[in-house]
Design brief:
Length: 1282
């Protein structure tokens, strides 16, 4: 499940703006019902029907006998209607967001509840997890996963904010939509957790008991021990967010994160205030819980418990012969969150900034407080806050809402309202002004003794009694003014406060949290990471940083904001709000934003009405002297309601926290009577029986789901026209228009593109090419010959936005050069050029372009559906532009300047980027360890993932540290390396251009911007990869990294024939092969990576295919079943980890991974027993179970895309030579999955079991790693991440 940062969720709209403003999350803050703004909102509501309202709006806001219509609006800019229905009996509101866009194929519903947290016990968060764990009508133990498995949902999750909870899901299929909604509705209104304490114990917290047979060393359990525990013993052996993306078994995306088209680049995840969302991260499938229910028949363990062993220490606590600990899914999740210093900064600042309202409390739960929560207190909170009259239901769709209104009405009429507390809806109170500043200093776990500092203002505290300080910011004009100011202060690396702190030399990177508009009042935060006690003592740091910030603000008031920067801020806002309308799941983001406004009784349509308010702001900036600067003076400089927090890194802190947790348990248990202790043992045994119980096949078959016949028969094909151009081409648009009329020529162009740009590397056997062939091809080729450049043109509705991509194949780069791409890519976007300063360049870029992005795209070299070669990989540098069509000429000129004129002598900027990237990795390690671990463990197995890790993972982190040291001692080497990279990458050899826009915008590209496009293409065409270049590479640095020259030199200096074949189709792949950098067949890799943390991430990976074997697509179905059933039930539900996933790649690599996991050996044992769990699943699997898994797999393939998403999907298909026939065969094999495939996959896992034992990596703390090595497995290597 997702714990949303109290600050707020990055919604599209908010994120739009907030991407703009500074990599933090923003939102809105207005006033209550007596404010001027609310009055304006009421005037806008209940608008009369007139000719300004489209007919579709009238058609899609029907009257209904069971509801009153309280509000009705239409927003022209977003072409969206907003209608509020209130149920006449239940008083539940249904808010309908209507659309008439035929491309809005996704329907979304949400249940929004105001859930104020009055303690740090995490009640709202635990409740959010527990609610979806079974209900009165849907009495299934693992309801959430049952629901997910047989659905075509596009998103399925729940979200905990500081003061609200949202349960949300969506689907493209109408039948599926109402199935999913029916389950959610029953869960929200009648959850099983109110009657089943075991759900609360599983999701929240409980005493975990492990039977100890020997308190000094770990030994296997005896048969008597097992019998004593009634088959309730722990599922495996002894002891164990992924944030990303694919969703599998958890809520965080561990599951995948590895897209074939991955775009790598780590530069900085540091971000601001988001730290809590660190807690999880977005998973469509996710998260939630599994727990409940009854109809169970099997009490045996899914995994084999005969090996439950336990190591103990003197500070452990025992009840009889049971070792006691505390576990729970939310408990583990929040221990991971609290290991992140950015989270600590965020939570601590809220405590001090909001001392008198609920924003000072942690709705997610403080691990120190969660065990103080009782089941009765938990239930009471539900009855108080989940009263139907307090719940709002959202429905976003282009369909008529009548069907939904009927479904909700029928359900609400069946409820028993007597059980709910009839309290009035509780509002968040405004925090009154308190004069500061205030200072806080506390410790956190850090082995390098690095420190962090943040300064946070409450920008609009309520006026205090007996005070004449009035900091009111109630109007929407104030809000949009603050958004602009946020951009000006921290929106870019050249913004006022960001730049001042970056250049201060006190810290290594800026914490650019910026404006937080997601709470009842606005806050603003800025700070530094990587502060070390060198030339300045920690006692002085808070005051020194404060002075730097305040001096920068005062300078702004005196000198004024940069006018170009103001224009850039406005462009960013307008572009982002326009682009958000092209998002497939935009309704999801709209709901988040509207719910936030409603939570504080504010205008729900504020963001959607941005044009009228932004127009006022523009006019004020133009006509009112120092308009924006006056906000700085009043709300920043003169405002003393602020806090400065210093987090002091302490290498002993984590170990001390572990000891404190153990002491807490000891103190608790020692106070209990023998009867109470016996109760704990009995409850735990009952809980284990419950955890190991499964829903019967018969009961599962009763669960509502769509059928195979509801699925699309074919995979969506994406139209594309391939057009060849060059720098001198005249009248491009006419030529292209003529081409579109010639289907035969279009087919010929497509075939030529595949032959010359996709398959051309297959010159010799497999993917090898001769270096001498390359040399010969380029010799004497200095004349100016304009090369044909392929353009993949996608005509589609984009609302006047143009998407341009320039892809450059990276075959001629070495591994050393690839390791510089993280730095290189970031530098191109932020650096000064030979024409202008970095500030002028960045601001002009932001003013003219919506987004300029650079990433590395990694994919299979040939058909990704038939890969059996671990070196099958290719890499492209992707230079990408998102912009309004009339800005194309200026955008192309700025692109040319960025790529051609970037001044690589700028050592200060390079060092700043390196420090930021290094600190970004450290933040990501704590917040999203699963992502880093997944990259790392798979990098041992194939070239693609080796390079991904080298560019954006742990290897890149090590390389960045090395480059940083070189930058301080011999910067000239780095400058030469960067120049070489530019020369080798940006040439027309192997360059591909992609253009996506609506038909009318083609003129803006081909005609209006013709000379500008020609200039850019001419630059790419002007550089030739000639023979002399191979020797020139050596001028950069005499090292083995100049791989091409090394081979040629070796050939010329010996009479022996040297194999100069470039293996794997690229210099970097050749280097991987020749140096044998991947894991060797018999090599054993067992590694602990340690850093300050109280939870673990565990991964095991192996290859199950032989060299001549290919992936059977049915195994995709099997792996989905494995993730959503066995792994979820054991690692998460039974053993308390927050994240668990499993993944299979096209090349046969299978990876199992957990994160925010309290266990080590237990989790490894679960992974070892996967084949047993899989066979057990297959033994009891019904035909309907199998259909669920197939539907889930097809749902992943058919996930809706729009705009740029379609473009990237198409390009991935084309560049990897995936044909329509391939997709058809792949889909058909998935549809034809049988039970026998489950047994076959289990056999493969058994056959390759030893392979998995040879590749194990665990992230944990130093103490736990040492203990494990000493007591369990001495073969592990310990590596400290510092």
């Amino acid at each position: 499940m997702k714990l949303m940062k109290v600050l707020g969720y990055v919604t599209t709209i908010g994120n739009c703006i907030h991407t703009i403003l500074g990599r933090s999350e923003k939102r809105t803050n207005l006033n209550f019902k007596n404010s001027m703004f609310f009055t304006q909102a009421l005037k806008a509501s209940n608008m009369p029907v007139n000719d300004k309202v489209p007919q579709w709006v009238i058609d899609k806001r029907p009257n209904h006998n069971s509801y009153n219509i309280l509000d009705s609006r239409y927003n022209k800019s977003f072409d969206m209607s907003y209608t509020v229905y209130e149920h006449k009996i239940a008083k539940t509101q249904v808010i309908v967001l209507g659309s008439n866009d035929p491309l809005d194929i996704d329907q979304t519903f949400a249940f929004y509840i105001k859930t104020l947290a009055h303690t740090d016990k995490g009640i709202p968060h635990i409740l959010e997890h527990s609610v979806l764990s079974g209900s009165k009508k849907y009495d299934y133990k693992e309801l959430f996963m049952v629901l997910d498995k047989g659905s075509l949902n596009t998103h399925l999750n729940a979200y905990t904010y500081n003061d609200r909870t949202i349960y949300m899901a969506g689907s493209m299929n109408n039948k599926d939509f109402f199935n999913v909604m029916g389950v959610y509705m029953d869960c929200v209104f009648q959850p099983n957790v109110l009657y089943n304490k075991k759900i609360f114990q599983t999701e929240g917290w409980t005493y975990e008991l492990e039977k100890v047979t020997n308190t000094t060393e770990e030994t296997p359990k005896t048969n008597e021990d097992e019998q004593a525990e009634d088959s309730s013993t722990n599922v495996t052996g002894s002891s164990t967010n992924v944030t990303n993306t694919t969703n599998a078994t958890d809520t965080t995306n561990a599951t995948d994160t590895t897209n074939v088209t991955d775009t790598t680049n780590v530069t900085d995840t540091t971000n601001v205030t988001d730290t809590t969302n660190v807690t999880d991260t977005t998973n469509v499938t996710d998260t939630t819980n599994v727990t409940d229910t009854t109809n169970v028949t099997d009490t045996t363990n899914v995994t084999d418990n005969s090996t439950n062993i336990t190591s103990t220490s003197n500070d452990d606590t025992f009840i009889k012969d049971y070792k006691v600990s505390i576990k729970g899914i939310v408990y583990s999740e929040m221990k991971g969150v609290f290991a992140n210093p950015l989270s600590l900064l965020y939570y601590e600042s809220k405590k001090k900034i909001f001392p008198d309202n609920i924003h000072s409390n942690n709705s997610g739960g403080d691990p120190k407080e969660i065990p103080n929560l009782t089941y009765d207190e938990f239930k009471e909170y539900y009855y108080k806050n989940y009263n139907p009259k307090k719940i709002k239901i959202f429905f976003a769709s282009n369909r008529n809402p009548t069907e939904l209104l009927n479904v909700v009405d029928e359900y609400l009429l069946q409820l028993d309202y007597s059980k709910y507390r009839d309290d009035s809806v509780e509002d968040v109170k405004l925090q009154k002004y308190k004069k500061g500043p205030f200072y806080v200093r506390q410790k956190y776990g850090n082995s390098e003794k690095e420190n962090l500092l943040s300064i946070t203002w409450l920008l609009n505290p309520e006026k205090a009694k007996n005070s004449d300080i009035d900091l009111n910011l109630s109007s929407p004009v104030d809000y949009f003014s603050l958004i602009i100011i946020n951009f000006l202060l921290t929106g870019t690396t050249e913004s006022v406060l960001y730049k001042a702190l970056a250049q201060s030399g006190i810290g290594e990177s800026v914490i650019d949290a910026g404006l937080d508009d997601t709470l009842v009042q606005y806050t603003y935060s800025i700070g530094l990471k990587g502060i070390k006690e060198n030339h300045i003592s920690l006692d002085e740091v808070p005051y020194k940083v404060e002075n730097i910030v305040m001096d920068a603000l005062k300078n702004v008031v005196n000198s004024g904001f940069n006018k170009t920067a103001i224009e850039a801020a406005i462009n960013k806002i307008e572009f982002s709000l326009k682009e958000t309308q092209l998002k497939v799941l935009k309704s999801k983001d709209y709901i988040f934003d509207i719910a936030e406004k409603l939570n504080y009784n504010k205008n729900p349509m504020l963001i959607f009405d941005f044009e009228q308010y932004l127009a006022v702001v523009k006019d004020n900036i133009k006509n009112k002297p120092k308009y924006l600067e006056n906000y700085i003076q009043k709300h920043f400089i003169d405002n003393k309601h602020r806090v400065t927090i210093l987090l002091e890194g302490d290498e002993k802190y984590t170990a001390e926290q572990i000891k404190l947790e153990k002491q807490f348990i000891k103190n608790r248990i020692e106070k209990l009577s023998e009867e109470e202790k016996e109760t704990i043992i009995n409850e735990y045994k009952e809980l284990q029986i419950y955890r190991n119980t499964e829903d019967t096949p018969e009961h599962l078959d009763e669960f509502p789901m769509i059928s195979i016949s509801d699925l699309n028969e074919i995979t969506l094909e994406i139209p594309v026209n391939i057009y060849f151009t060059n720098a001198d081409e005249n009248n491009n648009l006419n030529l292209y228009e003529d081409l579109k009329l010639n289907k035969e020529k279009l087919t010929e162009n497509f075939n030529n593109f595949v032959k010359n740009y996709v398959l051309k590397k297959k010159i010799t056997q497999d993917t090898s090419v001769k270096l001498h062939d390359i040399k010969k091809h380029t010799e004497g080729n200095n004349e100016s010959v304009k090369k044909q450049i392929p353009m993949l043109i996608y005509e589609m509705p984009t609302m006047g936005i143009v998407y341009l991509q320039f892809l450059f194949k990276l075959d001629n780069l070495t591994l050393e050069e690839l390791s510089y791409l993280n730095l290189f890519n970031t530098l191109l976007l932020e650096n000064k050029t030979h024409k202008r300063s970095s500030e002028d360049f960045v601001l002009l870029k932001e003013k003219s372009i919506g987004s300029m992005l650079i990433s590395v795209w990694l994919s299979s070299l040939s058909d990704k559906l038939n890969v059996n070669d671990k070196h099958n990989a290719q890499a492209y540098l992707n230079f990408e532009l998102h912009l309004i069509n009339h800005n194309v000429p200026e955008a192309l000129d700025l692109s040319l300047e960025a790529l051609k004129e970037s001044d690589f002598s700028n050592s200060e900027k390079v060092i700043e980027i390196l420090n930021r990237s290094i600190n970004g990795f450290k933040s990501a390690l704590v917040a999203n360890s699963h992502r880093i671990l997944l990259k790392l463990i798979r990098s041992k197995i194939d070239s693609k993932h080796y390079v991904r890790d080298l560019i954006s993972g742990y290897r890149n982190y090590l390389k960045l540290k090395e480059i940083l040291e070189l930058a301080k001692t011999d910067y000239s080497k780095i400058e030469k390396r960067l120049i070489t990279l530019r020369d080798k990458i940006f040439n027309s050899d192997n360059m591909i251009v992609s253009l996506a826009c609506d038909t009318n915008s083609l003129k803006n590209v081909f005609v209006d911007a013709k000379p500008h496009l020609q200039n850019l293409l001419s630059y790419f065409d002007s550089y030739k990869l000639v023979a002399d270049d191979f020797s020139s590479f050596n001028n950069v640095n005499k090292d083995y990294g100049n791989y091409s020259q090394h081979l040629l030199d070796e050939q010329s200096n010996t009479t022996t024939e040297v194999n100069t074949t470039i293996l794997g189709g690229s210099f970097w792949n050749d280097e991987i092969i020749r140096k044998e950098l991947l894991k060797k067949k018999d090599e054993v890799i067992k590694e602990f990576f340690t850093y300050p943390t109280t939870v673990n991430a565990v991964a095991m990976s192996g290859v199950i295919f032989e060299a001549d074997e290919y992936l059977n697509p049915s195994f995709i179905v099997v792996m989905l079943a494995l993730k959503n059933n066995y792994l979820w039930s054991t690692v998460r539900v039974l053993n308390g980890a927050y994240i668990v996933t499993g993944k299979i790649s096209y090349d046969g690599t299978v990876t199992f991974l957990s994160a925010r996991d309290p266990n080590l050996e237990k989790t490894l044992q679960v992974f070892r027993d996967v084949s047993k769990g899989l066979r057990k699943m297959a033994d009891s699997m019904t035909e309907k179970d199998l259909q669920r898994y197939i539907i889930s797999a097809i749902g992943g393939i058919d996930m809706p895309k729009r705009g740029l998403g379609l473009v990237k999907e198409s390009m991935d298909r084309i560049i990897t030579n995936e044909t329509q026939e391939d997709r058809t065969n792949y889909r058909n094999q998935i549809m034809n999955t049988k039970k026998e495939h489950f047994y076959k996959f289990a056999d493969l896992l058994d056959e390759k079991a030893n392979e998995f034992e040879k590749n194990i990596i665990i992230f944990t703390n130093n103490e736990k790693a040492k203990d494990y090595i000493e007591s369990v497995d001495k073969d592990f290597k310990l590596i400290n991440i510092s």
